[in-house]
Specification:
Blueprint (H helix, E strand, L loop, with lengths): L3 E4 L12 E4 L1 H16 L5 H9 L2 E2 L5
Antiparallel strand pairs: 1-2, 1-3
The chain binds zinc ion.
C-alpha cells in the first residue's frame, strides 16, 4: 500500500520547517494537523484536517 507524505517545506511558512511526516493517510493527517497547530499556530479542527488531507502526496519509493 502507498504511504502518504506531508512535507512541511512545501508550505509557506515564516519558519524554516523541514519536517516530513510519512505514514498511512489517517496517521499523517492527524500528525500533520497536530504539528501545524502546535508549531505553526494553526487552529486544529475539521477544516485544518481537510486542508492537510488535500496536500498529501504519495510516497516516492526509491528503488
Ligand atoms: Zn512545520
Amino acid at each position: 500500500m502507498t504511504r502518504k507524505v506531508a512535507d512541511c517545506r512545501k508550505y509557506p511558512s515564516e519558519m524554516n520547517c523541514s519536517l516530513t511526516i510519512t505514514g498511512e493517510e489517517d496517521e499523517v493527517v492527524r500528525a500533520a494537523s497536530e504539528h501545524a497547530a502546535s508549531v505553526h499556530g494553526h487552529e486544529d479542527g475539521p477544516e485544518l484536517r481537510e486542508q492537510v488531507r488535500g496536500m498529501l502526496e504519495d510516497e516516492r519509493v526509491s528503488v
